Amino acid sequence: MRLQNKKAIVTGGAGGIGRATSLAFAAEGAAVAVVDLNAAAAEAVAQEIRAAGGTAIAIAADVSSEADIERVVATTVDGLGGVDVVFNNAGIIRRTTAVETSVEEWDRVFGVNVRAIFLMCKHVVPIMAGNGGGSIVNTGSGWGLKGGGQAISYCASKGAVVNMTRALAIDHGPQGIRVNSVNPGDVNTGMLRDEARQLGQDQAGFLAEAADRPLNRMGEPEEIAAAVVWLASDESSYVTGSALVVDGGGIA
Ligand code: NAI
């Protein structure tokens, strides 16, 4: 029970990695606010946690909206009694080059992947600081560290996540707040299947390519969740500003 008595917010909590992490947080004793654009799916995850004897609430929100983020933080404080852990994980991808990307799509990707993390930290850091500290984990990507093809806005946004994480760690370490990024390789979620669709590629072939790495398979959401639990817990008490790569050795 590495997160006993902790109160956690998970954004994108209804999706592949977010759902697995919400369940893992609850299994470690945390009360969880499952935040997602998809209200019904968020409620289903919260119900799954409650059915297993845990504590969870679902909050429907668009994380790119400041009003929604303020409501998420207030509802969590009211409903769970505080915030000790935040997993800023909601994200979207557009598989297009710079030439193919509209300004609106660029702004949407940055709104969800980058501005949302800034907004969450803006509103949650004062609460954590007033409570002696906390742990924030942001979802970057292997492509935020090394780049990738046909995903210009995504790669730029995830690079921003990695460096924003370092800047947050510097600013708020003295307040007892640790901030780290987890950087997955290809993980078996709806996002990968959506990428195949966006690129007009055969899904099986796309997934087979995703498995082409030293460990010879793509990751499972639970394997990212395990790393996030560690970063959220006191086991990682001297780790901040780090970019933890969890990618099966996706070196190239
Ligand atoms: P997913 O598509 O399964 O889940 C994403 C969740 O975020 C969905 O439930 C969706 O409804 C929610 N969401 C999207 N926009 C939102 C918004 N504006 N407000 C609130 N919720 C919103 O994707 P997955 O794979 O679980 O992705 C989670 C994170 O992991 C993302 O940040 C993604 O970029 C990152 N990632 C995923 C990789 C993969 O291979 N699946 C690889 C590297 C990073």
From TrEMBL:
SMART domains (UniProt xref): PKS_KR
InterPro entries associated with the record: KR_dom, NAD(P)-bd_dom_sf, Sc_DH/Rdtase_CS, SDR_fam
GO MF annotations, alphabetized: glucose 1-dehydrogenase [NAD(P)+] activity
Keyword Oxidoreductase on entry: yes
EC code(s) of this entry: 1.1.1.47
Domain Ketoreductase: 6-195
CDD domains listed in its UniProt record: SDR_c
UniProt entry keywords in alphabetical sequence: NAD, Oxidoreductase
Recorded family membership: Belongs to the short-chain dehydrogenases/reductases (SDR) family.
Name of this protein: Glucose 1-dehydrogenase
High-level lineage: Bacteria, Bacillati, Actinomycetota, Actinomycetes, Micrococcales
